[in-house]
């Protein structure tokens, strides 16, 4: 049996040194990446609320009906008001489906057939996940701002 005169490969101390260096780099890089991912998740939740706001407003204008937008942590609903009846127009998952927490007024946003909000339709909803947070602010006129 012939033995190789020159052995190729890495020794155990060399492999351990590489693993220690990789572990140190991971420990340094992980917190900023985590903050970035938390911020992206919260921004996506705010955009989800913004899209529902736009959808409810456009529904009110297009169909000439009073429209309600219910912003809940688990579910976002758009309902049409016709006389004394309400009809579910659209429903989607709320921010809690992505692990976000949502806090804010419990009353629905009410849109007139002109697309303006009516009654107690202004408010601030706070989204948070990990270290990131955003405020979704709806003015009395129905304008939405993400801060």
Give structural attributes.
single chain, 147 residues, alpha+beta, minor pseudopilin epsh fold, five-stranded antiparallel β-sheet, four-stranded antiparallel β-sheet, 33% strand, elongated
CATH third-level topology: minor pseudopilin epsh fold
Helix and strand composition category: alpha+beta
Question: Main sheet?
Answer: 5 strands, antiparallel
- Strand neighbour order, sheet with most strands: 3-2-1-5-6
What is the CATH class designation?
Answer: Alpha Beta
Q: Uncertain spans, ≥5 residues at pLDDT below 50?
A: none
Per CATH, the superfamily is minor pseudopilin epsh domain
Tally of individual domains: 1
How many helix segments? 1
Mind telling me which CATH architecture this is?
A: 3-Layer(bab) Sandwich
Number of strands: 9
- SS strand fraction: 25-35%
Globally, the shape reads: elongated
State the separation between the terminal residues, measured CA to CA.
Answer: 74 Å
* Approximate helicity band: 25-40%
